[in-house]
């Protein structure tokens, strides 16, 4: 269950749709394949099979878990570099530690978000805290990569820690859905995240039988990823379930409806709603580097090998591996 919750009857409400507004049609529904990241934690590759033009300004997204670890099982990543984009780690349930070569870091837990602008280059690690490794427990989160435009590729790295309680909370006109805005804004309700690329990043919980209808900027693309549950999306009521990504076409509003019957262990339709203004610049990606040219990729690798992307601090966290 999401850590950040609220009584929707007490929250600000979105205005109902007006006759002149159009629902965005569904362009595609894709199912993300499952894999493993870092030292072996399970992920769903949410953007697999989707064109970069439909994703722009986003580059990559993993759903981490949802998994209930036994003691000794939790795993993370080792130290690794990034350049040219921003990483967003949103912890829905559980805890993750972050540390980077610029001094940023801390514990991300229970609805918090770590927003790291890699910019010119950074080294970092994400790993479960020792107590979670010892005890086991629920682990569920999202890692999203947001591209930076060419003008910002080499900006100074930055770290933001956004606690779950900082998210802007609102609901639909009938109070049937809880919406947590982490970055960007919806109908004047702004989240705490500061972004270089204009985007909106939100998490919505839609109760069984209820309908989510959100106004959406016409110059933004629109994506919905199903974290858990079952429902339908768009004016044609396309069925969706956990692990699927919806790409919407042009229009004024994003719509989704939760099935009246949900699994007992997944009592609502949980959706990640995101979109942004496309950058429309060339993208050359190689592993943890997202640049505009092949030459910039070569330079990124050379700079990393020469130690110019940062130095692992002497008090560095280290990954937890299998016993």
From TrEMBL:
The entry's keywords: Dioxygenase, Iron, Metal-binding, Oxidoreductase
Highest taxon in the source lineage: Bacteria
CDD domains, per database record: cupin_pirin_C, cupin_pirin_N
All residue ranges annotated as the Pirin C-terminal domain in the record: 202-309
Annotated region (Disordered), positions in chain: 1-34
Cofactor note (record): Binds 1 Fe cation per subunit.
Coiled-coil regions listed: none
CC cofactor: Fe cation
Residues noted as binding Fe cation in the record, renumbered to the chain: 80, 82, 124, 126
EC number: 1.13.11.24
Protein name: Quercetin 2,3-dioxygenase
Gene Ontology terms for molecular function: metal ion binding; quercetin 2,3-dioxygenase activity
Family label: Belongs to the pirin family.
Enzyme class: oxidoreductase
UniProt cross-references to InterPro entries, sorted A to Z: Pirin, Pirin_C_dom, Pirin_N_dom, RmlC-like_jellyroll, RmlC_Cupin_sf
């Amino acid at each position: 269950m999401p850590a950040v919750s609220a009584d929707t009857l007490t929250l600000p409400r979105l205005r109902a749709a007006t006759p002149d507004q159009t629902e965005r049609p569904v362009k595609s529904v894709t199912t993300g394949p499952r894999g493993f990241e870092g030292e072996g934690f399970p992920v769903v590759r949410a953007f697999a099979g989707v064109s970069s033009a439909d994703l722009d300004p986003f580059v990559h997204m993993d759903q981490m878990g949802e998994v209930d670890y036994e003691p000794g099982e939790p795993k993370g990543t080792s130290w690794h570099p990034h350049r040219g984009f921003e990483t967003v780690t949103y912890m829905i349930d559980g805890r993750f530690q972050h540390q980077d070569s610029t001094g940023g870091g801390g514990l991300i837990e229970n609805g918090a978000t770590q927003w790291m602008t890699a910019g010119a280059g950074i080294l970092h690690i994400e790993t479960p805290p020792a107590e979670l490794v010892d005890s086991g427990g629920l682990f569920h989160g999202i890692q999203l990569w947001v591209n930076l435009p060419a003008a910002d590729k080499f900006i100074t790295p930055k770290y933001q820690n956004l606690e779950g309680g900082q998210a802007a909370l609102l609901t639909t006109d009938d109070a049937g859905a809880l919406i947590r805005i982490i970055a960007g804004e919806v109908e004047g309700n702004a989240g705490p995240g500061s972004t270089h690329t204009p985007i909106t990043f939100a998490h919505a919980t839609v109760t069984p039988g209820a309908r989510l209808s959100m106004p959406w900027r016409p110059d933004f693309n629109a994506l919905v990823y199903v974290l858990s549950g079952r429902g339908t999306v768009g004016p044609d009521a396309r069925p969706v379930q956990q692990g699927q990504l919806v790409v919407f076409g042009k229009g004024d509003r994003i719509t989704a409806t939760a099935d009246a019957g949900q699994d007992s262990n997944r009592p609502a339709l949980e959706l990640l709603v995101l979109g942004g203004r496309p950058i429309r610049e060339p993208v050359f990606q190689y592993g943890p580097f997202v640049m505009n040219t092949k030459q910039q990729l070569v330079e990124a690798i050379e700079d990393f090998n020469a130690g110019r992307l940062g130095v692992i601090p002497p008090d560095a966290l280290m990954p937890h591996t299998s016993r």
